[in-house]
Amino acid sequence: MDRREFIKNGCTACLSATIIGAVIPSxxxxxxxxxxxxxxxxxxxxxEFLVREKGKTRYHPFIILRNDALQYxxxxxxxxxxxxxxxxxxxxHQGTELQAAGDRLxxxxxxxEFDSKGFVRTGPADRxxxxxxxxxxxxxxxxxxxxx
Length: 148
Ligand code: FES
Description:
The chain is of the alpha+beta class. It has 2 helices and 15 strands. FE2/S2 (inorganic) cluster binds at residues 91, 93-94, 96, 107, 109-112, 124-125.
C-alpha cells in the first residue's frame, strides 16, 4: 500500500466512524451518574436505567457511577429487573481506569478486556475485576461497598 492509498483508507475509516456515531447516538452514549453514597455503599434508583424514546421504553445495558468519594468509577450492568453486576473499573493488571464498551470493559494501557461479570476475556490481566454485591429493593439498587 502506498502513502496516498494509506491516507485515503485512513480518512475513509475516520469518516465512517464519525457518521456511524452521529447516526446511532443511543448506542454510543454512556450514562454517568453519581448515585447516593450511604454508610455502607451506593444507592441508585432503578429508573436511572430507563430510556424512553418515541413512546417506547428500553433500558441502558449499563451505567457508570462516578462519585468524588470513590477513587475509581463503578460500572453497573443490568441483566434483568433483579440481576445486576457492579464492577470496580480498575484494571487488575496495573491499575489503569477501564473504559466501558458495550458489554466489555477495556483497558487502554495494554489491551485487557473484561466481560460484564468482571471475568478476564483478554489479557495480560489474569484476575477478575473486583465486584460488589448488588441488591434490589423498593426500586433502589444497593451496591454494598463495605469490602473496599
Ligand atoms: S494496566 Fe490494564 S492491561 Fe495493563
